[in-house]
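Q: Sequence in, structure out?
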Amino acid sequence: MIGKTISHYKIIEKLGEGGMGIVYKAEDTKLKRTVALKFLPPELTRDPEAKQRFIHEAQAASALQHNNVATIHEINETKPAPGEPGDGQMFICMDCYEGEILKDKIQNGPMKVEEAIDITIQVAEGLKKAHKKGIVHRDIKPANIFITEDGVVKILDFGLAKLAGPAQLTKTGTTLGTVSYMSPEQARGEEVNHRTDIWSLCVVLYEMVTEQLPFKGEYEQSVIYSILNEEPDPIIGVSMELDRIVKKALSKRPEDRYQNIEEIMTDLKSLRKEIENELLKKQSEKKSVPSIAVLPFVDMSLQKDQEYFCDGMAETLINALSHISELHVVARTSTFSFKGEKLDVREIGQRLNVKTVLEGSLQKAGKRIRITAQLINIIDGYHLWSEKYDRDMEDIFDIQDEISLAIVENLKVKLLGKEKASLVKRRTDDVEAYNQYLKGIYFARQYTTEGFEKANRYFEHSLQDDPNYAPAYYGLSAVCYAKSFWWNLPPKEAYPKARIYAEKALEIDTTLAEAHAALGFINTIYDWNWDAAERELKHALELNPNSAIIHVYYSWLLTFTRKHEEAIAGMNHAQQLDPLSSSMNAHAGLTLCLAGRTDESIEELLRTIEMNPNYFLAHDNLGMAYLANSMIDEAIEEFEKAVDLSKEVPMTVAHLAEAYFLSGNEENGEKLFNSLKERSKQEYVAPICFFSIHLGRRDLDQMFHCLERAYEEHDSFLPWIFNFMDINDFRTRIRSDPRFKALHKKMGLE
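A: Exactly. Output:
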């Protein structure tokens, strides 16, 4: 067969074979893509039941179109050579995946419980789709489960599937399947339903974590006797809850088992969350580091015009302290959420999960400044340390150093290596340059077009006072890429300029973590240079391990390169550092969604919206999670809120238009489509916005035209698209298109 062309498929190599088929890797010469061809063995070609089963497999699998089910493209039959008697050889064309069969993976030894649970949940996701279509697989086993190199699970071989409807492949009383994975009713040859798949799936789960089968025997009848009459050995040394789940799923009577696949998925997801939380707790206990939240200083000046300086004072201290690896420092967004509130510091400390809180006030008059600061133990509310400073404005840097060192001393933090130097490092001695920089930060935090313009001016003023003030160059860099990522500055105008500013900052000061993070962000979002991005972001985290935003940037990189579990762990860390940040929590929900954990994503995003109902990004991300769960009406409701709250940010408009088209509401979809086309004549609208709309319109040619434009323009949102292609059936189907694969390869994501 090797080298032959069957229909328009050129056979490349043999991949494997089983009782019901021989599988080859082949090239689709028409579409220039790699596929797998499964041939019915020649000796079965003349067997009507075998042929029917083969057709049956193609029908069952092709009816599903789910990310966790192997994609079937067609079923066909070769023509016999001239003069040869009989029929041709039947074959199924399907996606070809790189990775390994679960059966081979299990042979390497027991798997980690969290990995086994993740695989089980993914199989359950595929079965959930099958069961909703009335399809029961009836042959779930490790040999029929494939794990791609990206960790995506694919269910194979629906040859024994029972389809909905009156037609039956086999008569009642006939035993089909693999004995070790059969449910009791299946072993007895009785009628089976979806609960037999739940049984088989938990046999696989048991085998993954123990490397043993729950029901054993030296020959088939003894295995069947064990299935019908014996209880499996308990799962020891792993998890009592896992043992409970498996025992329930392996109840002899179907009515005592989980009654549908969603029930067991809920329990498994809860267990996975418990395991993740326990790991985080152990890591936290192992480190057991001191913790602090620095609250924004209160403006006590008569004119009340020093808010920017009070905020900057607190942020400067946060940045200095965050360089200390043995100190947990809550990020600015969370601590500043209490600004102006009259709350007891003990309550604030409890909500931020820290042991100490620093609060203070600032009063400025001419060139004199008065600062008070107190470090408070939240357990009893007592002051661990307090101090008052009456100094000239020129002494502001000395005051900051003294406060930082007093915190370290009173919390008994051991400074490692160069940490003390980082703690008191001054990047300028020019007070006015620092003052202008703080104004720039204050306005940049507003995330408005006007705020960005003011921030730009103040950073430039800062550099006029001190041309070697590296943080001001970083500020200019951050404004550039924020204006493109969040608003309407074309990427090719924004990111090259942002890179120049970040590199200039590092020319002056190679230890500025934020500038390394900026380069990491630019390499991720704009250059798609994944190795350089990883190098810069890892170095940034070494310099500033308590920076929540750097953890977010690194998590995005891990998501784009499909290291989803690491990305989730990174976002969890960011949330711990900045627990009350709507942005952190919204991104955490999106990260879960892109990892295929949509139910958890929805829960996370609903919690985020409960904390801040007016944050548009949380609503937009929730809409995407609902789309992934095929909840179109709910998605539309969230996208409508996102459009309203964001004042029609183009991406939210595009998502709403896509959802309208998917729901069949073409009139509203076209209105939004036309509105974005009109806006694009006056302002930059990212090509990915139009890609999303054409996705809803099912216009493949226009979709790929937009993708090519996005590639040429280095659209900031393009890296997200490759993960969003897994969230529903139609998007998953597009992933196999050769045009999509070619673009994926060009971006270095193959």
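The first strand starts at residue 5 and ends at 6.
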